Amino acid sequence: MIQDSFHRKIEYVRIAITDRCNLRCFYCMPKEGIPYEPKKELLSYEEIIRLLKILGLLGFKKVRFTGGEPFLRKDFVKLLTKTKNLGVYDSINITTNGTLLLKYLDLIKELGIKNINLSLDSLDPKRFNKITRRDDFNKVIETLNRLIDYKFNIKVNAVIMDGINNQDIIPLSKLALENNISIRYIEEMPFNGGNKKKTDLFRARDIFKVLKDHYPSINKKEFIHGQTATKFSVDGFKGDLGIIAAFSRTFCDSCNRLRITSKGSIKTCLYDNGQFSIRDFIRSGVSDSDIKSKFEELIKLKPKNGFEAEKSIKNSKTQRESMSMIGG
Ligand code: SAM
Ligand code: SF4
């Protein structure tokens, strides 16, 4: 078990296995996309597995594969299989836009992977197209329905933006009325890969107000350590609702995460600027024990919270990073 300097147990790694994406969600990427890294700049699957094995020695128990769109990377299922075979991770998770997942569903189920976060910002096809700048609404809904049929543990992630899709809060919530799934509303963060200002913030408290006005019986659920969402139950619902104050950053005290970006940089906080290239380190011929010590050193540098991390970035860049490189 490893702790940071604020006595937080760090045991959850999120890896962006690619920076590429087939959608262009405007809060994540400019319409022309971002300059993608050449393949050799990404961590190879062998490198990822080596890092996961070493993190396992440090007590890591949970891994999430994200991106970019993870299903765009060739042989992603092989990476999942190798991760499973490590026998280290209690919880293997995937975050996906759901456009390419269907043909892999059986394989994923056979592997025993149960936790899928699906991004879906609107139940209105026109708004979905406007936000993602692509025409894949039907595919994503079909994926959601199949995931429900297959009884995956599903979290639907929706970034809520004022005047863009705040009218979707209630329609999305109804998915959790009929189904045992979680709907999580996320504050927009300033990682859009461009120099565009983010939209006016629709804060966690604004989201809660919309929910409370509609569902007076809404009730806060017990907080579980490491959780980023404040969770709520509503009378009669099979699933639950959650609000992630990703910009207001109210959950940092219980943060248990480490991130590895698509280029193999370690981020101990989403808001820091990528402290260390573990990719260059691993490629310099170091031993497993050197890598383990490096992780220990980096975890001790994890900032107290996202505000401290932001302050420590010296040159505040006008060109923002994209979430597709960081791994949301
Ligand atoms: N492509 C996959 C997907 O969309 O699920 C995985 C990568 S995506 C970067 C992961 C999550 O980050 C998505 O749920 C997305 O909505 C969220 N995200 C992207 N940009 C964001 C931003 N600027 N603010 C808040 N969340 C963001
Ligand atoms: Fe792609 Fe996900 Fe970013 Fe949308 S949020 S552009 S689906 S990486």
Account of the 3D structure:
- This protein has twelve helices and twelve strands.
- It is of the alpha/beta class.
- Strands 7-8-9-6-5-4-3-2-1-10-11-12 form a twelve-stranded mixed sheet.
- A hairpin with a 6-residue loop joins strand 8 (229-233) and strand 9 (240-244).
- It is globular, with a radius of gyration of 19 Å.
- The two termini are 25 Å apart.
Features:
328 residues, alpha/beta, TIM Barrel, 12-stranded mixed beta sheet, 12 strands, binds S-adenosylmethionine, binds iron/sulfur cluster
Low-confidence segments: none
CATH class: Alpha Beta
CATH-derived architecture = Alpha-Beta Barrel
Choose one word for the global shape.
globular
* C-alpha termini separation: 25 Å
Record the SSE blueprint.
Elements: E1 12-16, H1 45-57, E2 62-66, H2 76-86, E3 91-96, H3 105-110, E4 115-119, H4 125-132, H5 137-149, E5 153-160, H6 169-173, H7 175-178, E6 182-187, H8 204-214, E7 219-220, E8 229-233, E9 240-244, E10 257-260, E11 265-267, E12 276-277, H9 278-283, H10 288-300, H11 306-311, H12 323-326
Parallel strand pairs: 1-2, 1-10, 2-3, 3-4, 4-5, 5-6, 6-9
Antiparallel strand pairs: 7-8, 8-9, 10-11, 11-12
Helix pairs in contact: 1-2, 1-10
Bound molecules: S-adenosylmethionine and iron/sulfur cluster.
S-adenosylmethionine binds next to strand 3, strand 5 and helix 12.
